[in-house]
Specification:
By secondary structure, the chain is of the alpha/beta class. It is 42% helix and 26% strand. The chain has three domains: 81 residues, Winged helix-like DNA-binding domain superfamily/Winged helix DNA-binding domain (Arc Repressor Mutant, subunit A), CATH 1.10.10; 98 residues, 3-Layer(aba) Sandwich (D-Maltodextrin-Binding Protein, domain 2), CATH 3.40.190; 108 residues, Periplasmic binding protein-like II (D-Maltodextrin-Binding Protein, domain 2). It is elongated and about 70 Å long.
Length: 305
């Protein structure tokens, strides 16, 4: 029995948590898939799956084997694609991790177009801002904003967005609208903190080569921009948001821009992947697609007001 066939059968059972569904996806009889997994367990001399009449779950040993198996299968797929000149047809399982706001507002609305273009790619998209070990977690690429400090990864710039300061009408009616940065320092603010570093970010403004940092009077710090925006809409403080997120709230009148004469910082957005993924057709396809989406996205301050 081919080792790669048994490995593929096992990974598909883990992903679908069902022998029946795995068999359908592989176009094989259920008995064949079951026999392949049993043969794999016998060869490894370890139990990989817990089975009941209604449920299949992976054991700790099986979880460890699964992470290694999907990497091996991915590398085999890429090697065969390169040798057979099939790189023009990206296919296979693609695991990515993106910030939730980017996933919700930029990627998810365009997924139908992605699958029309790349019908043989199966996408698994995690939405987080957490530190990701791409190699050990078997993740093909991530999208992240800000400065990149991990020199072990290949970084391709997708675009950029600007941070603008906003306030809810109810907050501005009660506390007034700041006219300059000195006044802003005395206002209540809703802050964003990074899940990656735990750092709470101040409001940053750029005037030529001079950068001014404003802390304000923090009322709450949240690690998700969408929740930050909802909190600010309740009237508890001013907020600095990426313009592509703020558009939804400014269009409805829940937030209005303040300090229009002050320029906030520009945040670069990157797609990152390990050096050994640079020839992957599916990673290259995803990178090109996301770059197109970012090029079309409305990130300028005029569109956010």
């Amino acid at each position: 029995m081919d080792r790669f066939d048994t490995m593929l059968a096992f990974t598909r059972v883990v992903e679908l948590t069902s022998f029946t569904k795995a068999a359908v996806s592989l176009n094989l009889p259920k008995a064949t898939v079951s026999a392949q997994v049993i043969a794999l367990e016998k060869r490894l001399r370890v139990k990989l799956l817990n089975r009941t009449t209604r449920h299949v779950s992976v054991t700790p040993e099986g979880a460890g084997y699964y992470e290694r198996a999907i990497r091996l299968l991915g590398e085999l797929e890429e090697t065969e694609a390169a040798v057979s000149h099939a790189a023009m047809t990206p296919k296979g399982r693609l695991r990515v991790d993106v910030p939730s706001a980017v996933g919700r507002r930029i990627l998810a609305p365009a997924l139908a177009e992605f699958f029309d273009r790349y019908p043989e790619i199966d996408l698994e998209m995690g939405c987080s801002d957490r530190p990701v070990d791409l190699i050990n977690e078997g993740i093909d690429c991530v999208i992240r904003g800000g400065d990149i400090n991990d020199e072990s990864l290949v970084a391709r710039r997708l675009g950029e967005f600007r941070m603008i300061t906003y306030g809810a009408p109810s907050y501005l009616a009660k506390h007034g609208t700041p006219k300059d940065l000195e006044e802003l320092e005395r206002h209540q603010v809703v802050s964003f903190f990074s899940s990656k570093t735990g750092k709470t970010y101040p409001f940053i403004y750029e005037q030529g080569e001079v950068q001014t940092t404003i802390q304000g009077r923090p009322r709450v710090a949240i690690n998700d921009f969408d929740i930050c925006a909802v909190a600010a809409c309740s009237g508890i403080g001013l907020i600095q948001l990426p313009t592509f997120i703020a558009t939804e709230y400014t269009a409805s009148g829940q937030l209005v821009p303040v300090l229009d004469g002050y320029v906030s910082e520009v945040i670069p957005v990157w797609i990152l992947y390990p050096p050994n993924r640079h020839l992957s057709a599916k990673v290259r396809a995803f990178a090109e697609w996301t770059a197109e989406l970012f090029a079309k996205a409305e990130f300028d301050t005029q569109n956010s007001a």
